[in-house]
Amino acid sequence: MSASLPRTTREVRLASVPVGLPTRDHFVVTEAPLPEPGADRVLVRNRHFLVFPGLRTLIGGEVDGVPLPALRPGDALFGPCVGEVVAAPAGGPLRPGDVVAHLQGWREYALVSAAECAPLGDALPDPVAHLAQGSTAYGALTRLAGVREGDVVFVTGAAGAVGSLAGQIARLLGARRVIGSTGSPWKAERLVAELGYDAVVLRGAGSVADQLAAVAPEGIDVLVDTVAGGQLTAALGAARHGARFALVGALSGQLSARRAGGSAPVEIDAFRLVVKGVSLRGYSGADHPDVEEEWTGRFGAWLRSGEIAFPHVRIAGIDRAPQALQELIEGRHFGAVVVEL
């Protein structure tokens, strides 16, 4: 290994399982020996990693049906990351200097199987944009909802990592009117001023159903739902005949202090589903393996043309990562939250 590399690396570990929602005190930043690359493994210096709400489910341990393992006390956290290969076995597919994406974030250096690294070309103008969660929104809108010219689209959790891209994508795909929901007035202002939302339903400022009826009196054709809960119920009340609902998240349950992150019960009127002919489907990227490449190509073109923005905040330093997760859960940030190393 190069003499210029450090002997140790820092990583964020789960210190204890919280009762309720996790805070920064449930994590610890520790030092560990720098791992040596093996015959089929490369050493990556991580540059940026994503802070994402799905960690709440992994920490809570309710991972039935989730394609990721539960986190136990002492485990290092993980998640989407972009970094630079600094050591690789001779003859392998990756070389030092290659920029790659992988799932071993939350640490300064990661030892990753070459098969689990995705080399990043120049499809996107900034490698950090590979941490955008737009493929979920794009897949839901193109594979499940099938947005058509003139549609009215409602996006719940519109200021989050998925929602902040979903509204923009819906517009680019032909939506006539795009409505979002959020929990704070300053986010509502940014959604309209910066991301082109036509109207915003403000959670906590009265009935969501009444607000939605006021801003979409003719009803909605498409729902991209990251929240579920009462907002899903309200959306069903506003659905036009033949509306298509794509569920991509369930933050109302996932980020509830009364739950462990793996359930989000909601009461909906099945009669309305039937008489309105509403389709309601959950989106999983694993079911649509062709979406990622298609999305990356379109995202890169839209970024370069200025037709889309990647809303995100960069948090400097691994020491601030636990606080960043707490702030994400508390809804303090707009767009994706990325830790910059």
Automatic annotation (TrEMBL):
Q: Which residues form the signal peptide?
A: none
InterPro entries given in the database record: ADH-like_C, ADH_N_2, ER, GroES-like_sf, NAD(P)-bd_dom_sf, Zn-ADH-like_protein
State the Gene Ontology terms under molecular function. oxidoreductase activity
Task: List residues of the Enoyl reductase (ER) domain.
Answer: 20-339
Output the Gene3D superfamilies linked to this UniProt entry: Medium-chain alcohol dehydrogenases, catalytic domain, NAD(P)-binding Rossmann-like Domain
Taxonomic superkingdom: Bacteria
Record PANTHER family: PROSTAGLANDIN REDUCTASE 3, SHORT-CHAIN DEHYDROGENASE/REDUCTASE
Please state what the protein is called: NADP-dependent oxidoreductase
Native organism is Streptomyces subrutilus
What lineage, starting at the top, does this entry show? Bacteria, Bacillati, Actinomycetota, Actinomycetes, Kitasatosporales
